Amino acid sequence: MLKKIKKVIDEFQLELIDMGYSQELRWTYGKVCRLFGEWADDHAIDCVSEETIRAYSLEKTGCWEAAINLPDKDRITLRALRLLSNFLKGEPFEGRTPLKEHRFYTILKDHVHPYLRWCEEEKGYRPSTIRDKFWILCRYDNFLHDKMLDLKNVTIGLNEEFFASDACGNRTNYKSTVREMLQYLFDFSILVKDLSPYVLKEPKRSKHLEIPTTYTTEEIKFLLSAIDRSTPKGKRDYLIVLLAAEYGMRASDIVRLSLKHIDWERNTVSFSQYKTDVPVQYPLLSSVGNAIIDYLRHGRPTEVNDVIIV
After folding, report:
1. What per-residue confidence (pLDDT) applies to 213?
2. Percent of the chain scoring above 90 in pLDDT
3. Pick from 199, 192, 158, 194: nearest CA to 177
4. How far apart are CA 196 and CA 181, in angstroms?
5. Which among 94, 234, 306, 307 could bridge 228 via Cys, Cβ 3.0 to 4.6 Å?
6. Which of 247, 244, 309, 231 has the alpha carbon at shortest distance from 281?
7. What is the per-residue pLDDT across 162-197, written as a single tens digit (0 to 9) for each?
8. Distance CA 130, CA 181 (A)
9. Domains along the chain?
10. What would the pLDDT profile of 115-153 be if each residue is shown by its tens digit?
11. Distance CA 64, CA 98 (A)
C-alpha cells in the first residue's frame, strides 16, 4: 500500500533522530525531502514510491548511483534520497552511496530484506556481515536473472557454476549465505521445497596443510621506500602500510583508527578490533608516531573529525 509523501517524510525525519543523526544533517536532509515534496505536488503525485524518488533524483542530479565529480549539492541530494528510499522499503540505511546499483530481479527481491532483518534480530549478525550477505545474494540473484532463471530452476550444477564464477570470492562464505537464505525461505513457507541441500558443502581442509604467505622484512622495507612521501596522499599511504606492517592491523581497524586511540604520554595505541571486538594495545613505535605526526601536520585535511586516515 502506497503512503502519502508528507507522512513518509515526517516518519523519515523521526527515524533520523532515533538513529542519532546530527541536527545539521537532519536539517540538510529535511530540506532535500521538502523540495522533493514540492516537486511531487507540482507533478500531482500524492503517494511516494521508490520509482518516484528515483525519478526525482535523476531529474535533479542526473544519477541514482554515485558518480565521479558529482557536485556537493547533488551528492547531498542523492544521499538523502537514497536514505529516504531505504526507509520507505524498510531497509537498513546504506553506509555509502554505491557506484553501482544493487538490484534484485528474482523472487529474492521480495524476501531479501526480511531475511536480513531476521539475521540481525534473530541471529545477531554484525552490520558488516549483513552487508556482505546482501552483496552475495544480489550477485546470486543477478546470476539467475542473466540466465533467465528463478529459484524454482535451481539445481546443484547451477549453484556450483555460480560458486565457481568470478563473481564469487570466498566460496565458503558464499555457500553459507545462499544455503541459509534458501533454508529461511523454506522454513517460512515461501518455498514449498527445501533447496538448501542443493548447495554442496565445501570439503574441509586442514589449515596445517597450507603454507602461510607473508612478506619478508626486505620486501616491506622496499614497499615503504617506494612510496612518495612528499605528497599528502603519499604520507597517508605510507602510514597505512606502516600500521599494517608493524601491528598487523586489519584494514577495517586502520580506517577507524582515531586520535582518541593514541596515548602520547604512555606511548600506546589502544582500540577494540572491529571484526572481533577484542581490545588490543600496542606500543607506539617511534616510526609510527613520527608517520602519524607527519601526516597530521602536512597531509591530512583539517576540517575533519578525529579519524586519522582520511
Report:
1. 65
2. 28
3. 199
4. 8
5. 234
6. 247
7. 888 755 567 888 999 999 999 999 999 999 989 999
8. 12
9. 3-89 (1.10.150), 107-198 (1.10.150), 217-298 (1.10.443.10)
10. 999 998 998 988 888 888 888 898 899 889 888 888 888
11. 9
Backbone angles phi, psi at 262, to 5 degrees: -110, 125
Residue 276 CA: distances (Å) to CA of 170, 229, 235, 269, 279? 19, 32, 29, 17, 9
More confident residue, 53 or 169: 53
| C-alpha cell read off for 298 | 602536512
User: Which residues lie below 8 Å from residue 57, measured CB to CB, with a gap of 6+?
Assistant: 63, 64, 77, 78, 81, 82
Higher pLDDT, 202 or 167: 202
Q: For residue 228, which phi and psi values (nearest 5 degrees)?
A: -80, 105
Residue 190 burial (C-beta neighbours within 10 Å; 0-12, 13-18, 19+):
middle
How confident is residue 246, by pLDDT bands cut at 50, 70 and 90?
A: confident
Its sign, for the CA torsion 88, 89, 93, 96, is negative
200 DSSP 8-state letter? P
Which one, of 146, 203, 145, 144, lies nearest residue 171 by Cα? 203
Q: How far apart are CA 293 and CA 132, in angstroms?
A: 35
Q: Which residue type, as a one-letter code, is found at position 237?
A: D
Model confidence, pTM: 0.46
Ranges assigned E (strand) in the chain: 3-4, 47-48, 262-263, 268-272, 279-283
> 196 with 184: CB under 8 angstroms?
no
> What torsion do the CA atoms of 256, 260, 305, 27 make, to the nearest 10 degrees?
100
d(CA 27, CA 29): 6
Whether 274 contacts 253, CB under 8 Å: yes
- Candidates 101, 197, 191; CA nearest to 150 is 191
- The whole-angstrom separation of Cα 247 and Cα 269 is 10
